[in-house]
Amino acid sequence: MKKLFAEFFGTFWLVFGGCGSAIFAAGIPNLGIGFAGVALAFGLTVLTMAYAVGSISGGHFNPAVSVGLAVGGRFPMKDLIPYIVSQCLGAMLAATALYMISLGHADFAIDNTKPGAFAANGYGALSPNGYALASAFLAEFILTAFFLIIILGATAPTSNGKFAGLAIGLGLTLIHLISIPITNTSVNPARSTSQAIMAGGEYVNQLWLFWTAPILGAIAGALIYTYLISKRETAQ
C-alpha cells in the first residue's frame, strides 16, 4: 500500500505542479512563465518526487512508464494495474484541486473549443499550434520512447543512481520544450485523462491518442533499451 500511496501522491504533485503552472502562471502578461516555465515545472515535479518517494515506489507517476518498465523487466506485471489506478486517481484529485482553486477567480471559465483548455492535450483544432493527428501521434510516440530510454539508462545498475532523478527530470523538461506547441505534451496518460475530463468536450474524444501513443512509445523504448543498448553495454 505504501507503494501505491507514493504513486498516488507523486502523480498528484506532477499534475498539480505541471498543469497548475500552465493554468495559473503561464499566461500572465509581462510576468508569465510561458512554455519554458511550464516545461521546467513538469521536470521539477518529477525530479522532486523521484527523490521524495522514488525509493518507495520506484517513482513512475505515469502509466506509460509503468508499462515500459514492466516490458523492460524492471517492474512486476502483477503490480501494473494497481499502479495505473493509483496514478489516475492521483491525477484526478490534482485536477479537481486545480479546478476548485480556479473557481476563486471571477473570470474563470473553461472554453473547451480552444487549444490548451485547462492544460488539456489535443491535436488538430485543439493542438496549441494546429498540428494534425499524425504529427501528434508521432511526437508522443517518439518522446515517450526516449523518456523510457532515459529512465532505464539512468536507473541501470551500472549508472550512478544518485543522479537518476536529475536526468529523468531534465529529460521530461526537454520533452515539454519540444512538444508543448504540438500537443501541449502528454507522454503520460494519467495526466491527459485528468485534464481531459475536467475540460470536457472534444478533449475527451481525443483522449485515446494520449493513451495509445505514449504506451506504444514506452514499449518501443523499453525494447530498444533492453535488446539494443543494454546488451551493447554488457558486451563492452
Automatic annotation (TrEMBL):
Keyword Ribosomal protein carried by entry: no
Keywords, in A-Z order: Membrane, Transmembrane, Transmembrane helix, Transport
Classification via Pfam families: MIP
Membrane topology qualifier: Multi-pass membrane protein
Primary subcellular site in the record, as a coarse category: membrane
Compartments where located: Membrane
CDD domains linked: MIP (cd00333)
SUPFAM superfamilies tied to this protein: Aquaporin-like
Positions of transmembrane segments: 31-53, 80-101, 131-151, 163-182, 208-228
Family listed: Belongs to the MIP/aquaporin (TC 1.A.8) family.
Cited Gene3D superfamilies: Glycerol uptake facilitator protein (1.20.1080.10)
Lineage: Bacteria, Pseudomonadati, Bacteroidota, Sphingobacteriia, Sphingobacteriales
Protein name: Aquaporin Z
Species of provenance: Pedobacter montanisoli
Coiled coil: none
